[in-house]
Specification:
InterPro entries: Adenyl_kin_sub, Adenylat/UMP-CMP_kin, Adenylat_kinase_CS, ADK_active_lid_dom_sf, Chloroplast_ADK, DUF1995, P-loop_NTPase. The chain has 600 residues and is an alpha/beta fold. 36% of the residues lie in helices and 18% in strands. It has a 9-stranded mixed β-sheet with strand order 13-12-14-15-11-16-17-18-19. A 5-stranded parallel β-sheet has the order 5-6-4-7-10, with helices on both faces. Strands 1-3-2 form a 3-stranded antiparallel β-sheet, with no helix packed on it. Strand 2 and strand 3 form a beta hairpin. The structure holds BIS(adenosine)-5'-pentaphosphate. BIS(adenosine)-5'-pentaphosphate (AP5) binds next to helix 2, helix 3, helix 4, helix 8 and strand 9.
Length: 600
């Protein structure tokens, strides 16, 4: 960051004034990875390409990845080695973009391209561009698109940005700037938006100071300079007055939504009103995850095992539509079975042993009239057969009737389940009885040869608590995986009268010891089941993804991603994301947007 026109010779390796406007040409730009060496990988036509990978397909469709539908097998061409990261960071003035960029560059070595810095360097060098930009900047207004866009394109086309990857800060700042990038097929892997409340932003700008020697950003209160010597040379940016900050903020808000709409599938809103180290930690883990996905994508050895496990499926196509058409089509059911299977396999391969699948599509949501036990059974069969195919001994367990005397019984949802399981078609290969056995819940069900336990919808019933039996069973299972499919382990205080070995706290703690490897839930207005407003999905090891359902003019519908979360978001966080509000703001769930209250 550099002060406007205060210094005449400030340059860093990333900030070089552009010679003249006339020398800028976007046609000279080449696709950033066009020169990368490539290798081919043939995949079976019916193979299922994991969702994460597909996202990368979209992001890099023009550069390193080609699918040739004419070839007999799907031919995927991808670059050898890992492509450098491409990151965009956005946020209101003083949301901390520059501060986070310093940390990102230190850790990931990306080329930092800040339009603010580039423009300030032009201004201080007195170039043609600088002279044009100066009046706009000093007034807190946006510099005309053609100036900024040409400057950014030139910088992006330089070799270092192609080789090391880039971190674009402060561009695009308008819909037309975003469109310029789209036209040139320049897309980031991830679009980070820092969320900070307005009043904090103004205070940050007023207290901001810059070190003209190192370019480091300070704040009189938040990050004071380390020494008196540094303090004495600090300068104030010309556009950091309260009045100009307010105008910049206004302009930012006007444009933000239109820009975000260009990057809906890769946007990640991050709460920027926290200590900078904490913010960076979240950004760091996000970027590491993106890098990891890309390595998987470009390393055939990593793709094949997953594909092997996902037999006879089409590749991921986003959240399926028409989920309110009931009963669900076979295709939709298959989609979800595969989605759950993928996530569960990844979690088990990762060494996780206490897992939970929570899938609440209408046919699997006991609160809905359309609940179908057959769908739950099919899901369990897909899971069990897949593990059995890998040579594992799977025990599929359904809790038996519980209680005594007048309290004897079992949850309605599970009545008859065991018989259905026994009569189901388990294939002609003799899996049932050899690799798959059916049992109940309790320590006695655990045999030495069992490798994995799948427990069907374990639940507390009024008067009876399943947790004690479940705990005894998991104790006996030791470190063998136990997967709960749609458990309902909420404590029922009314279940007194029956001796329970554990107290309430312990029971809750035990229930919480199972981690989600898969979560899917449709979102509705409170108290309704129509229309579907969106969906929340998590597939191990990835983040919770919040989608909004959008009706298209053609009459079709689609799901667009609004935000992602490291943990399951609460109702307020979901509401805020729908409203485009900063995450940390406390708000009451009210009005029509109170629709998500009580869903979790
Ligand atoms: P630019 O320099 O990009 O300004 P900006 O977007 O308004 O952002 P800032 O640099 O003010 O803030 P920042 O988010 O980087 O925050 P920082 O880390 O410094 O652009 C300037 C001008 O150039 C524009 O107004 C426009 O005229 C022109 N321009 C630029 N790009 C353009 C484009 N694409 N099109 C047209 N015109 C364009 O932090 C702020 C303060 O907060 C610091 O003091 C810092 O120490 C402190 N702080 C940071 N993080 C924290 C934290 N977590 N907690 C407490 N304090 C913190």
């Amino acid at each position: 960051m550099f002060p406007t026109s205060t210094f005449s010779s400030l340059h860093t390796t990333n900030v070089t004034p552009t010679p003249s406007l006339s020398s800028l040409s976007t046609s000279s730009l080449s696709s950033s990875s066009s020169s990368s060496p490539s290798s081919s990988l043939s995949l079976l036509q019916s193979s299922c390409i994991p969702r994460r990978h597909l996202r990368s397909f979209c992001a890099f469709r023009d550069t390193q990845l080609r699918i040739d539908p004419k070839s007999k097998g799907l031919k995927v061409t991808c670059s050898v080695g890992s492509e450098p990261l491409k990151v965009m960071i956005s946020g209101a003035p003083a949301s901390g973009k520059g501060t986070q960029c310093e940390l990102i560059v230190q850790k990931f070595g990306l080329v930092h391209i800040s339009t603010g810095d580039l423009l300030r360097a032009e201004v201080s060098s007195g170039t043609e561009i600088g002279n044009k930009a100066k009046e706009f900047m000093n007034a807190g207004r946006l510099v005309p698109d053609e100036i900024v866009t040409a400057m950014v394109m030139t910088r992006l086309s330089r070799q270092d940005a192609k080789e090391k990857g880039w971190l674009l800060d402060g561009y695009p700042r308008s819909f037309s700037q975003a469109q310029s990038l789209e036209e040139l097929k320049i897309r980031p892997d991830v679009y980070i938006v820092l969320d900070v409340p307005d009043e904090i932003l103004i205070n940050r700008c007023i207290g901001r100071r810059l070190d003209p020697v190192t370019g480091k950003i300070y704040h009189l209160k938040n990050f004071p300079p380390e020494t008196e010597e540094i303090k004495s040379r600090l300068v104030i940016r010309r556009d950091d007055t309260e009045e100009k900050v307010k105008s910049r903020l206004e302009i930012y808000k006007k444009n933000a939504e239109a820009i975000s709409s260009t990057y809906l599938n890769i946007v990640n809103k991050i709460n920027g009103n926290r200590p900078k180290e904490e913010i960076f930690k979240e950004i760091e883990s996000l970027l590491l995850q993106v890098q990891k996905d890309r390595v998987e994508m470009t390393n055939p050895g990593n793709i094949i095992p997953e594909i092997k496990n996902l037999k006879n499926q089409d590749y991921w196509r986003g959240i399926p539509t028409k989920l309110n058409n009931i009963p669900h089509s076979r295709e939709i059911r298959k989609y979800f079975y595969t989605d759950v299977l993928e996530a569960t396999q990844r979690a088990i391969n990762d060494g996780r042993t206490r897992l939970k699948v929570e899938i609440n599509i209408p046919e699997l949501n006991p609160e809905m009239d359309v609940y179908r036990i057959g769908t739950l059974m099919e899901l369990v069969r897909v899971l069990a057969l897949s593990f059995a195919d890998d040579g594992k001994h799977v025990k599929v367990c359904v809790q038996g009737s519980m209680g005594e005397g007048a309290l004897v019984g079992m949850p309605l949802q599970l009545a008859g389940t065991r018989q259905i399981l026994e009569f189901m078609d388990w294939g002609d290969y003799g899996a049932m009885g050899n690799f798959i056995k059916i049992g109940s819940v309790g320590s006695k069900e655990v045999d030495e040869q069992d490798d994995i336990f799948v427990i069907v919808a374990p639940q507390n019933a009024v008067g009876n608590c399943i947790i004690d039996d479940l705990k005894a069973m998991t104790d006996a299972a030791g470190n063998r995986p136990v997967i709960l499919v749609n458990p309902r382990l909420k404590d029922l205080p009314g279940s007194s009268g029956i001796m329970q070995t554990m107290g309430r706290d312990k029971r809750l703690e035990y229930a919480a010891s199972f981690e989600n490897c898969y979560f899917f839930r449709l979102l509705y207005y409170a108290g309704t089941q129509y229309p579907i407003m969106g969906a929340l999905r998590m597939s191990f090891p990835y983040r919770y993804e919040l989608y909004k359902r959008v009706d298209e003019p053609s009459g079709k519908e689609k799901y667009v991603i609004l935000s992602t979360f490291p943990e399951r978001p609460d109702t307020d966080e979901v509401n805020d994301a729908f409203l485009g509000k900063p995450r940390n703001k406390t708000k009451e769930a009210s009005g029509i947007w109170g629709f998500l209250s009580g869903i979790f």
